[in-house]
Amino acid sequence: GKGRQDEGRQEQEPLLEVGVGVKSKETSIGHCSSSVVSVIKWILKALIWVIFVGWVCLIFIFPAPLGDQILRKWFEATSSSIFGITGSLFVAFSGPILIIAFLSIAHLLLSDSTSPQHVRKKAIEPSFGRLWTFPVLVDGPFGVVSAAEFIGIVLFVAFVIWAVTVYTIQNFNFISQFQLPTFLQSSSMLELTGLRFGSIGLFCLAFLFLPVARGSVLLRFIDIPFEHATRYHVWLGHLTMILFTLHGLFYLISWAMQGHLVQQVLEWKDIGVANLAGVISLLAGLFMWVTSLHPVRKQYFELFFYTHQLYIVFVVFFALHVGDFIFSIVAGGIFIFFLDRFLRFCQSRRTVDIISASCLPCGTVELVLSKPANLRYNALSFIFLQVRELSWLQWHPFSVSSSPLDGKFHLSVLIKVLGEWTEQLRGSILNSFEEQNQEMPLLPHSKITASVEGPYGHESPYHLMYENLLLVAGGIGISPFLAILNDILHRVNDGKLCVPRNILIIWAIKRSDELSLLSTVDIESICPSFSDKLNLEIQTYVTRESEPPVEEGKVQKAVKFSIFPVSKGHRLSVLVGTGSNIWSGAYVVFSTIGFIIFVSLLDIYYINHLGITSWWYKGLLFVACMLVSIFVFGGLVIALWNLWETRISTMEEPEEDKNAAELQHNESITSKGTSQENLVTSNNIQYGRRPDFKVIFETVAQSWGHVEVGVMVCGPPSLQTSVAKECRSQSLQRRRNHPIFHFNSHSFDL
């Protein structure tokens, strides 16, 4: 028997050697392919930066004589094509944006092809170093501004000052060539100055729409989430409207001086700019601008929201005002925004199942929404929610409070009652609960039909970049941090790569009833042995109560029930920029190809063939080609994308997972006593006090030592300012053995 065992062992040894050899060969091939992909991605990034820097340099030199010379040579070389001067300007100023978008698609596709481990390792490397996480400005009209954002602001301000200076010198030199009366010199100078302000505003407009393309490949490539990009849109909007207002104002003053104000305002030329179209466009822009100012937007949000739909009037009449060849300078950014807007429209047509809804004791509403397994999101994502029974036009953003590891077929959001819309939503849920208890059919006024846009957010979960996390929340701002906590606990429990090891949560709330928000995370259920692998501490500050309430020891249960238990198949649509890199990339590419095809056919068989020269009409046709290409070519891709989603959905069997997730969520809420007790062991509650961030940061510095600390803030502007000030102070006065604090904001205000 022993001899037979030795023979068997000898026979197995060569097989084991072969197996090890095959495995090592596969590993080496995997490393080789990963290295090749990394090199290609680096080349793509380098190309993108070269194109972007070249584009910015072209914009900077445009006002100077050198820029004029370069453009004249470019026109001589390219204007003989069927597209004429419009094509030349489009390639020079809009082409770089579209090329960067195509290269970004390729980069995102290559990122998908890498192994999950490689992606996670790459995600923990902070992009652009400290530029994005070091707060330079913490007070003032811009709010908290990082070093990278400050550089962007300086560049725009420098461009405006440079362009105004160069154009002013050119205007004086031009007028001095003619012997004109003082009156004509003044009016001519006003018109030339107005023209120059319009030219400068044109380049600001080229950037204006890029930050609000929520799921665009550009934002995803540079990993800037929409809540951050919204600020850039606000800044650019103020600058653009100031320049365009000066543009129109100088012309109006000049025309009034000449006594031709009404005649000039109503003028609509075929050859040249159409003044009336420009006036209409400017008025639409002014309505949007005034209603977007913070005091107006805060008090009358619906007015701000509805007037902002005038962007369609603004864009169309702007094209009628300047014609196709000038409009082509800004067409790239507007085209990308239209692409995103049409995709969002298609996604939002679907109603989404609400698996469950709950009302917590503090009045906060939790909704659990159904999603397909292949729709990706991370713990820092957010969605836009519409409830048709409350409003057909209002969409409200909410941070996701669940982790993608909670379940494949659902995500949840926490909604605090702050205004009329959220109050009506909570009332509808309570009415549905009462009717369900009485076994009555849901009445129309209590029915909830939800639609969702998103999810959007960071391309990479940057909460996994840091081994040490300091999370600062105010009120409902705890929501994304609950998702982060969920995500980290699942990763620790599942043995997945998880960088964070020390987590300190600072939470400021007004009343102790908001503590029920912690019940949405059952730590012991997710990761029973979390304390062995994770150092978690929660410091809660109840600011408007001087002592614990009498009933603090009692467990308050949330009102929990299911809505639409018989509806099936209505999950979040994957028709979103973050849904599939292949399909979203094809959507952008084919829509752009369709635009080029439509413009070519229009130029060959209509404009050039019939000799059409009207500026405003050609501008209208140009915009029409943009929209039709998106509807036809982009719509075809969306239709195929939707069919693919339907096919994938039929292959999935989510009911078992969905019901399990719902049951687990119900147990998480109804057994609040257990989960709350688990969290209390890590929660230090202080009453009648506000957090002293100087003391907190100094304590962290002494206890954690020389480490990288990711500081994340979600709350009102005052809270962000306080934390940013302390981050900046600690960084400027940092000792060698103290931490490096990286400031990250997860807050935005629409």
Automatic annotation (TrEMBL):
UniProt cofactor(s): FAD
PANTHER family assigned to the protein according to its UniProt record, in alphabetical order: FERRIC REDUCTION OXIDASE 6-RELATED (PTHR11972:SF69), NADPH OXIDASE (PTHR11972)
Region (Disordered) location: 655-675
GO cellular component: plasma membrane
Protein name: ferric-chelate reductase (NADH)
Ranges annotated as spanning the membrane: 42-62, 82-110, 131-164, 197-222, 234-253, 273-291, 303-320, 326-343, 582-607, 619-644
Topology of this chain in the membrane: Multi-pass membrane protein
InterPro entries: FAD-bd_8, FAD-bd_FR_type, Fe3_Rdtase_TM_dom, Fe_red_NAD-bd_6, FNR_nucleotide-bd, RBOH/FRE, Riboflavin_synthase-like_b-brl
Family membership noted in the UniProt record: Belongs to the ferric reductase (FRE) family.
Annotated ranges, domain FAD-binding FR-type: 347-462
SUPFAM superfamilies: Ferredoxin reductase-like, C-terminal NADP-linked domain, Riboflavin synthase domain-like
Sorted UniProt keywords: FAD, Flavoprotein, Heme, Ion transport, Iron, Membrane, Metal-binding, NAD, Oxidoreductase, Transmembrane, Transmembrane helix, Transport
Highest rank taxon of the organism: Eukaryota
Organism classification: Eukaryota, Viridiplantae, Streptophyta, Embryophyta, Tracheophyta
EC number(s) stated in the UniProt entry for this protein: 1.16.1.7
One example GO MF annotation: ferric-chelate reductase (NADH) activity
Catalyzed reactions per annotation: 2 a Fe(II)-siderophore + NAD(+) + H(+) = 2 a Fe(III)-siderophore + NADH
Subcellular location: Membrane
Biased composition, class Polar residues, residue ranges: 666-675
UniProt GO BP: monoatomic ion transport
Enzyme type, top EC level: oxidoreductase
